[in-house]
Structures are given as structure tokens and as C-alpha cells.
Please model this.
Amino acid sequence: MKARFTITALIAFLLFFGGYAALFIAPDERTMHEIQRVFYVHLPLWAAMYSALLVAFISNIGWLATRKPMWDWLAVSAVEVGVVCCTGGLITGVLWGRPAWGIWWTWDARLTTSFILWLLYISYLLLRGLLEDPQRRATLSAVFGIFAFLDAPLVYAANRLWRTQHPAPVLFGDSNSGLDPTMGKVLVACIVAMLAVMVLVLVDRYRLERLRYEVEELRFAADARTADSNSVTARGAL
Amino acid sequence: MTDARAAAILLAKELRLEFRTRELLNATIVFALVVIVLFSFSFDPTAAESRRYGPGLLWIAFLFAGSLMLHPSFAREQSNQTLDALRMAPVSPFAILLGKMLANFVFLSLAEVVLVPVFAVLYNVSIAGVIGRLIVVLMLGTLGVVITGTVFSAVSAHARMRELLLPLLLLPILAPLLIAAVEATASLFAEQPALDRTWLAFLAGFDIVFLTASWLLCDFLLEE
Model:
């Protein structure tokens, strides 16, 4: 418990430091000025999302290969955290897009891919909610999760091929070529902080899933015992 | 028994079952027709306009029709408890899946054979000159729909609200296929019709990726 508290405090400090650095240490951006600072939340959110979805993909394969329940717990936790990060990324992106590009949304390859991924993983969570049997839920949702993950590069490629024929707004210059060194350092700090938060939430969500599973097991055992005692009473009455 | 032979037998069984009543095929065609007609009210279907929007609405109609049509593929087995019999048969799960994919491919293709000429007449699109190339695009696109759709039909067959769930799972996955199929079709409907090889290759790639994934994962899909 003490270790947990220390780690949480450490991550809170890291997050605070990241926020401070993004607001006061990072230099002013030449064309977008203060608005550009949303970048230090936006990009880390995407980094956290893709890490979470990668964890989910590995967990899906892990479940199918080993059938250890921990993989299923990890998969659902990672998808939930990933969807939250994706939502955050989309919202910060829209807020940034309006002042920077003059439009809220554009059907650029990256934006579209994120949006489709968001829909796919929401469907994943819906599918889990609609499957009753735990074993089957884990297996079928793992198959869907793998399909969804495979779809991501295809969505990106299709949009790249399609939209590049029209001039599309660029997200932030050409790759990282124009990034100021201080900006780079602040960005790294923010990404580390966000990933730490993501892992913290993921671990907590995983624990919750494990507890749920244990409660389910205990309830099942208790039910079996009640049923048994009833039959014993019945036998005694006979 | 080889996989190919088992799949062929299953395909024959699916076709026999469907052609006794033709209910699935009829419903699918009428549904897609309704979509195509309703689209004509949402914008002015003159020649220039329809060239621009036509391919998109044609594929949207196919995707919607497919996502509804593919649902009974496994749900029908589920409600008659014949899936257990299929599982007990001495054939590989991939043969079962392949048989169903082929049957669905036949059904959706038949629907397209009826719908494409109707679409061409209603939206004033001339397809006579490009029919061979159009068939290639339609086949590759339809394959992608039935590969993913059959797998997801098996996934959603066990869920509650499965009728609603299948389109929900299937349509976002098909987003890249929709882009590629629409662009390939649009280049055929253009003033100077041309077969866009990039999009054709993309469609083939989509089919290969998901067919391979289905082959790798089919054991898990059909287990009890």
C-alpha cells in the first residue's frame, strides 16, 4: 500500500512537472503561439493510446495462446484505457484544430484513422458487454480485437493514398524537423508523464477486473454450497 | 477429406438451403434497392452529380445489405443447433468457414448482378464499356466484405442483440475497403474510364490480410 502511494505521488509530481514545463519552460511557437501548447497534452495522449492498444493486441494473442485469465483482464483494461486516451486525443485535437487550421475537423489520414480506431474499440467494449459466457467472451472478443488492430494500418494507408491527391493540412511541420530542442525535451517529459499515468490507471483497472473475477468465483462457490445444503435438508426430511 | 472438398460440400449445402426459399436473397436485394432509391431523394441524381456520388452510394448499399445478409450465416445454425453437428463433422474449422464465405460470396454477388444494372439505369451511368473491369472491382470488394463479415457473423452469433451488433462490428472494419472500392469504381465511371491498379492492389491486399487472419484464428471462432 505504501509503495503504491509513493508511486502515485511520484507520477502526480511527474505530471505536474510536465504541465509546468509545457506552460512555462517550452518556448513560444512562431506561428501558433500559446495555442500550440495543447500539443504537449495531445501527442502524449496518442502515445499512451497506441501503447495501450498494443498491450491489448498482445493480450488478445496471449489469451488465445495460453488461456490464462490474466490476459483477458489485461486486454479489457488496456482497451478501456486506450479508448479514454483516444477520446482525449480527439477532443484536444478538435480544440487545437479550430484556432490552428480554422476548422474543427478535417478528414486527414491520421484523424480518420484515430476516429475509426475509436469506433472499433468502442465496438469491442460493446461486444464484450453482450457476450454472457466469460470463456466465450474472452475468446471472441480477442478475435475481434486482433482484426481491429490489423485494420488500423489499412485505414491509415487507404486515407494516405486517397487524401494525398488533395492538399491536406499538415499536423505539425515535416516530421520533427522544425522542433526546437527545448520543445523536444518538454515533449519527452510530457510523454513519459502521460505513459506513467496510463500504466497506473491500467494496473488499477486490471486489479479491478481480477477482483471482479474472484467475486464471481466466490459467488459461484457460495451458490453451489447453498444448493447443496438445501438438498441435504431435503434428504433429512425424507 | 481435404479442406477444399469439405468446403465445396458445405457450399452446396448452403446454396441448396437458400435456393429452396430464396428468402435471404430476396430480402437483401429489396433492401439494397430501397437504399439506392432513398439516396436519390437526398441529392439531385443528374448525370454529373451521379458520377461523383454514384460509386459511393452503390458501395454503401452493398455494405449495408451485406452487413444484414451475413447475419443469418451463423445465427441460422445457432437457432437450429446445427452448429454442433458441423463442429463434430470430421472437417477442419477453416473448411466450415470457407464454405460459408463462398456461399455468402455467391449470395452477395447475385444481389450485385441485379442491383448494378438497376443502379446504372436509375443514375444514368453507362457501364457497358467497363463491365469486365467493373466485375473485377466488384469481386475483390465483395470478397473483402464476406471474409470479414462471415467471421464476425460467427463472433456475434453468441451475443445478445446480435442483429444490431454485426453491422456495428463490421462497418468500421470495412472503412478502408469502402474507400478503395469507391475510388476504383469511380475511376471506371469517369469520362475516361480507367482501372486504378493501386486501389485494385489495395483491395486484394485487404482480402489477403483478413483471409490469412481468419485462417489463423478459425479454430477459436468455432470452438465450443
